[in-house]
Amino acid sequence: MRPETGDSRQPVAERAISAELADRVAALMARMSLEDKIAQMALVQAGEGSPIESLGDEIRSGRVGAVLNLVDRDAVNELQRIAIEESALGIPLLFGRDVIHGFQTILPLPLGQAASWNPEVVRAGARVAAQEAARAGVNWTFAPMVDIARDPRWGRVAESLGEDVFLAGHLARAMVAGFQGESLSDPGSIAACAKHFAGYGTSESGRDYATTNIPDNELHNVYLPPFKACIDQGAASLMTSFSDLDGIPASAHSGLLRDVLRDQWAFEGIVVSDWESIPQLSIHGLTADDREAAIAAANAGVELEMASDTYARHLAAAVQSGHVSLATIDTAVARILRLKFELGLFEAPYAQAADDPEAAQQTALQVARKAALQSMVLLVNRNDLLPLDAGRIKKLALIGPLADDAYEQLGTWIFDGDPTLSVSALDGIRELLGGQVEIAHLPVLETSRSRDLADIDAAVAAVHAADATVLFLGEEAILSGEAHSRADIDLPGAQVQLVRRLHAVGKPLIAVILAGRPLTLSNIVDEVDAILYAWHPGSMGGPAIADLLFGIASPSGKLPVTFPRAVGQIPLYYNARNTGKPPLPETVVQIDDIPVRAPQTSFGMSAFHLDVDHTPLFCFGHGLSYTRFEYSNLQVSPAQIRPGESVQISVDLRNCGRRGAEEILQLYVRDPVASITRPVRELKGFERVRVEPGQTVRVEFRLSTDDLKFYNRQRGWVLEPGRFQVWVGGDSNSNLAGEFQLIDA
Ligand code: BGC
Predict the structure, then answer these.
(1) Which atom, in ligand 1's list, is nearest to the CA of 195?
(2) CA 155, 112, 220, 232 torsion: positive or negative?
(3) How far is the CA of 275 from the centre of ligand 1 (A)?
(4) Mean pLDDT for all residues in the chain
(5) Which of 31, 504, 542, 632 is deepest in the core (most CB within 10 A)?
(6) How is residue 436 annotated by DSSP?
(7) Mean pLDDT value across residues 664-683
(8) Are 424 and 540 part of one and the same domain?
(9) Is residue 456 part of a domain?
(10) Which residues are tagged catalytic?
(11) Within a 10 A sphere around the Cβ of 713, how many other Cβ atoms?
């Protein structure tokens, strides 16, 4: 029996292939030679200089199926015209681009968007990004990246939706829905691409492109489901990973690309290689040369080759020699052509400018602002230092290299971002406060990496003189993203010294941290009184920071990743398995307490490091608010369910503070005894709810028995009867608990 896979509670948006579409594809293919077909499998880079000159002739002679990295509407339209009017078959082109978190208008990093835990915010962001990109001629984005990321050293954690399979899957669906809209052929819709299939996020020690080792249990229960979620949402394409999974690089991994993707999941969209990942099969050591690499990738089921040309050079001969079947080529080309029909490119091939560019721009900025506001996470707020009361502040000190850097706050992957749209924190705060507050702005460090503290005295004086001080710390955009991994994830440069010198002044300090990853903050967490984690918040980061610092809105983001205390704890993630010797909550060991010359000590003999507390600095799901929420009265009903039934978990959420705010309630589940050991907790539901002061709302979650399934040693999805524990709360440490029994049918 075929194993069941994925999250079956969600309605499946099938990319059903109508008979009419199949007929159109077949009729076109009947007119195509083998060379014409193989040309459709080429995704070619628009090089430097004039694309019309460099690509025009190739397109005219039918040798290109898709173009990458061209975002000039006139050039795109001209190449499209050449393909349609001057090539023999008149097949329109795909134009692909990395539209990762916005196009001209930049949204928070995907990791920041994930901290909003708000699928609607994510959908709306992808929608405006798609609309802006479509106007520039893009009809295919290489997003969302749905690699589960448990290693903050990895630069691409910035581009991920975090460490959790449930959260990432839901938000990835929302992103696909935003890019693709109601229909791929709608104006402003572009095809999505879930990447990188599969396992890329686990590269050893966070070194980009490095080997991955993922046991079947983790692969199926953690790394694959977000891809399945995208497919269920109708994602048009998938991209292979650069990485090697258990000895087979992903671009030749037929176990993933055929057995899982096609046979089990029945995916009918297209699979594209990553950049030159087909010739790289030989660098990995799987194939001897480009010819073998092309054969391996084509046979594994990669339909389009990105940037390199091994298909163009070798596939025709490989078909003639019988190394690749004509059926394989036909299947690939049918899928590619189908997408072109679905995008409506045969009917409406040309990109159009916005009817009202000014209105479109304003809408995009509003969407970016809301996303930025909801993505920021208040990590620390001692003595309720925040929000600041603008009415009581006469002098404000804004210090640090990232207070007024409209570019760096945009983050990685912003090829098309317009830095002139970006509003820095300094400008956002000025705009909010008007002329009523005197602002001293002192970067002290030129960039986040600078070590020169020559200007520190002026900053010390400014802190002395100010009624409030905000430090803008973090990482520049270039320190995260592809091929930008770090082994040390402390604040770079002399920022820690900067914090210490200012802490010594003895006045409260607020830190706003702009970064592309979770940083290790142990060395500043006790030196500041409040920390607002802003990620790289995009174009409207500044106004969002201003609104949160001055209490126009309450912070409502929650961490989509665990923040370790020290880099040596990595990987550290909330949904780990228990081990036979888990540390007890009270396990605290100081390395200095260990007796000298003791042959062995027995500090609990459990799974922790001697030199760092075993807990994270901030747990998954953590995020404070300007109000206080109280959870109570958890009820689980019924107490027993059977397969196919569902259980309702409800809780009271009371706002005990004095301001209205949004809270993200989180539902966690544990299967304490199973045929394979299961995580100590797994997120199975979340809900963003607004509650007014003094108000109590009752929030209900519904768990179906499908939510309790897992992939087991027999390589199938199973539901095992027994006791299940549940917790609801504002983070992954909640101890408001309940339970229910799943009994046999
Ligand atoms: C990245 C992909 C990206 C592609 C095209 C590669 O290096 O891994 O994620 O879509 O380049 O820019």
Answers:
(1) 9
(2) negative
(3) 6
(4) 95
(5) 542
(6) G
(7) 98
(8) yes
(9) yes
(10) 274
(11) 10
